[in-house]
Amino acid sequence: MRKEFEAMQVGPVRGYTSSQIILHWLIVVLVLFQLIFGESMSSVFRAAQRGTTPDPNDATLATLHIWVGFAILAAVVIRLALRLRQGPPPPPEGQSPVLEWIATATHWLFYFLLFAVPISGIVAYYWQPAAGEVHELGKPAFIILIVLHAGAALWHQFWLRDGLLMRMLKPGA
């Protein structure tokens, strides 16, 4: 059976798999949800400190914030396992070693944040509220990384025209 599988493979990995692409975009949507609606958690926390009842919308969004954080953590564990097992596609032909290093560092920084931010939120919520200050640093860090990452993808697509963006839109591209 293994020989049959090996015979089916046609050379090195060119692009991301369907699973990697789906997980990437799922994580994008979940992180954007957190960035847009995450302030509700702060509102609920402040209401608890004052001894007042939080706004019902904030309470609902705060509960969703917690569950979406767990979902991000689970999706990232799966995505990292796939990346470690399958590896990333090679960089575009002719890409400078400096850009390759920046791309690799950016991806690992994303993985760090995608673990550290939910974990610090869990620690803050369940055990040590002071960890919430560390958790809140994740928002500006994510915004900066997202802008850099999306900007780089668009630069590759429209300036360099090297097809890099297609790797995250079409399996095997």
TrEMBL record:
Primary residence: membrane
Record's keyword terms, sorted: Cell membrane, Electron transport, Heme, Iron, Membrane, Metal-binding, Transmembrane, Transmembrane helix, Transport
Entry superkingdom: Bacteria
TM helices/strands, residue ranges: 21-37, 64-82, 108-128, 140-160
CC cofactor: heme b
Bilayer topology annotation: Multi-pass membrane protein
InterPro entries: Cyt_b561_bac/Ni-Hgenase, Cytochrome_b561_oxidase, Di-haem_cyt_TM
Signal peptide segment: none
Domain annotation Cytochrome b561 bacterial/Ni-hydrogenase: ranges: 16-170
Subcellular location: Cell membrane
Assigned protein family: Belongs to the cytochrome b561 family.
Descriptive protein name: Cytochrome b561
Record lineage: Bacteria, Pseudomonadati, Pseudomonadota, Alphaproteobacteria, Hyphomicrobiales
